[in-house]
Design goal:
The chain is of the alpha+beta class. It is 27% helix and 30% strand. The longest helix is centred in the last third of the chain and has 14 residues. It is elongated and about 65 Å long. The termini are far apart.
C-alpha cells in the first residue's frame, strides 16, 4: 500500500524528566493499541503496561479499540503517585495551621 494511503498519528509518553513523541504513518482503521505497539515505545519503556496504564487522545481518556484519525496524538498516562484530593486536603490543613 502506498504511503499516501496512510494517516499520520503520534504516540506520546512523558516521565518527570523526559517526554517522547513518536510520529507514525499507519493504515486507516488502526486503533489506539495497535499504534502504541507499532511505535516501539513498549520496548523502550518496559514499565508501560497496557492492562494498567490509562491512555487517551489529546487529553481525553479513550478506549483501547478506538480507531485513530489523521493527526491524532495517542497519550499514555502514568499512574498517579499521590491522590489529588488527599494532597489538597493536606495543603489546606497546612495553610490553616499557619
Amino acid at each position: 500500500m502506498a504511503e499516501e494511503n496512510k494517516i499520520l498519528v503520534e504516540v506520546a509518553y512523558a516521565l518527570p524528566d523526559e517526554q517522547i513523541i513518536i510520529p507514525l504513518q499507519v493504515e486507516p482503521g488502526t486503533n489506539l493499541t495497535q499504534a502504541i505497539e507499532l511505535s516501539g515505545i513498549l520496548a523502550r519503556y518496559p514499565d508501560i503496561d497496557l492492562s494498567k496504564n490509562k491512555f487517551g487522545v489529546f487529553g481525553k481518556l479513550t478506549k483501547a479499540d478506538t480507531v485513530l484519525r489523521e493527526k491524532d496524538r495517542v497519550e499514555i498516562y502514568r499512574p498517579l503517585i499521590a491522590d489529588p484530593k488527599e494532597s489538597r486536603r493536606r495543603r489546606a490543613e497546612k495553610k490553616s495551621a499557619s
